[in-house]
Amino acid sequence: MSQPVAIVTGAGRGIGAATVAALVADGWWVAAVDRCSPHPTIAYPMASSDDLADVVTGAGGNAAAFEADVSVGAAVAEVVASVTDARGRLDAVVCAAGVVAGGSPAWEIDDTEWDAVIGTDLTGVFATARAAVPALLASPHGRIVTVASAAGSLGLRHMSHYAAAKHGVIGFTRSLAADLAGTGVTANAVSPGSTTTAGLDESARIYGLESSEAFIRHQEPLGRLIAPDVIAAAIAWLCSPASSAITGAVLPVDGGMTATP
């Protein structure tokens, strides 16, 4: 099979769903992965099986749905094995799965909430990369793209676990790129700003804002929220051969959030 193959986690909605669409438009076949079940610790609803099915339907035969919790290493490894067995190759992995929680200062966060955020947002990235790298090494242009956040460069009040996870994603991605030196596989992170997702809506609730639109004031000089397909376009480019000279990089797609005070 000559069609390039990608795995995208967090594919049920938001940035992950937009990335599936962007890669399919570029000629990829995509394994769309999401947990598709309620999270016992996270307050807002997760993407559903129907959400994931809609993403796959929109791909017109160039995607398949896989339900897996990225915080469970064995579950991710099973997805990678299924994809490589069925398609005979793996060329890119996009780690877009993530959750948001918060509302308390760092010293009041309990172990359960800390583990939930770190487990999905950081350990999930590690588990996905660990499972995928052996298959990616056989690709002529293997790509790993992680979804970090502007929070990976900043401190966030009452969301220290989320900020810690995203700082960790950036550090892990850079270290992974160093480990992959000479293999032809690249590892890069995309760092979104305030993007119209369920996670941003939850952040607005945590901060007592009327809606996620209130985050616009943090988006100077852009002055607007970012659509998921804008982030997905950056991810798709990092998955392409055109990005072959880039590894260990963090690409900010944050509307200037980290460039201005």
Describe this structure in words.
The protein is α/β, with parallel strands linked by helices. 40% of the residues lie in helices and 14% in strands. It has 7 helices and 7 strands, in the order βαβαβαβαβαβααβ. A 7-stranded parallel β-sheet has the order 3-2-1-4-5-6-7, sandwiched between helices. Helix 1 (14-25) packs across helix 7 (228-239), helix 3 (73-87) packs parallel to helix 4 and helix 4 (111-136) runs parallel beside helix 5. The longest helix is centred in the middle third of the chain and has 26 residues, at 111-136.
Q: Could you name the key traits of this structure?
A:
261 residues, alpha/beta, Rossmann fold, 7-stranded parallel beta sheet, 7 helices, 40% helix, globular
- Listing every helix as H and every strand as E from the N terminus to the C terminus, the arrangement reads EHEHEHEHEHEHHE
- CATH architecture label name: 3-Layer(aba) Sandwich
What is the share of helical residues? 25-40%
Structural class: alpha/beta
- Sum up the overall morphology in one term: globular
Specify the oligomeric state.
single chain
What's the CATH first level? Alpha Beta
Number of strands: 7
Low-confidence stretches: none
Percent strand: 5-15%
What is the CATH T-level topology?
Rossmann fold
Terminal CA distance reads 49 Å
Tell me the radius of gyration. 17 Å
Q: What is the tally of helical segments?
A: 7
Count of discrete structural domains:
1
Average pLDDT works out at 94
Main β sheet profile? 7 strands, parallel
